[in-house]
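Milestone M4 deliverable, item 7.
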Amino acid sequence: MFPDIDWTRPWYDAVRPAFDSLAAGPFIAAFNANAARLGLVNDSGQPLRFVPQDALPEGMAYEAFIGATGCVPTRANLHDFFNGLVWQTFPRIKRALNALQAAQIAQAGVGKARGPARDAATIFDENAALLVVRDGAAGRALVDDLRAHRWRDALFDQRAMFGRDCELWLFGHALMEKLVVPRKAITAHVRVVPAAAEFFALDRAARRDWIDAAVSKAIAAAGLSTAGFTPLPVLGVPGWWPDQDEAFYLDPTVFRPKRPASNA
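Output delivered:
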């Protein structure tokens, strides 16, 4: 089952438990067994099922189909494989994203342009990473450095915070697919998730469940905007790539400076 994936890589930590729980055999059948075991449902409470891509009726939007039927069209490729693993890892966030997308489609149709809410949901679904940061002055300073693209300050000078006061959890399935062949320039759209100190005392499964609940509630309450993301070259996360000396973060082709704000 996709032998090119190196499951020892830290960027797959979020979805590795879902992968480890899969039964042998075709992965769509294994996904459905897990979906039943986990009690996965869509936003209207219908059981979630993974179905072949050709089950999607011609002319019907993918997100609307999931919202109407609970069926997730799935191709036998890496992209959809990671998508299924994310459904099994962060089901409430996936459900909230699908509900947002389906509601936008019902309101405005598919159209040539997605609109800002659907754009943000698509970016989240495909390329997001969740940076959980201990709430406090140090955590806010780290986030300020990341948003300002002060890469060396955030990722080199403050590297001791990673794993202790902050964690990056990958969510986007296209992002995971790209990282099968890692390149320094691969960049995530990061959503910052503040957390109290108690979060960091939880075991990993409980931390994952907390993230799923907190982020899905935030999406349901406030929607999404592309302004909520900040870029992060993921191989810059401390410990995620060898030889991360100071010079590693001074590469302007990857760790680009912040663009000046437009006066227009």
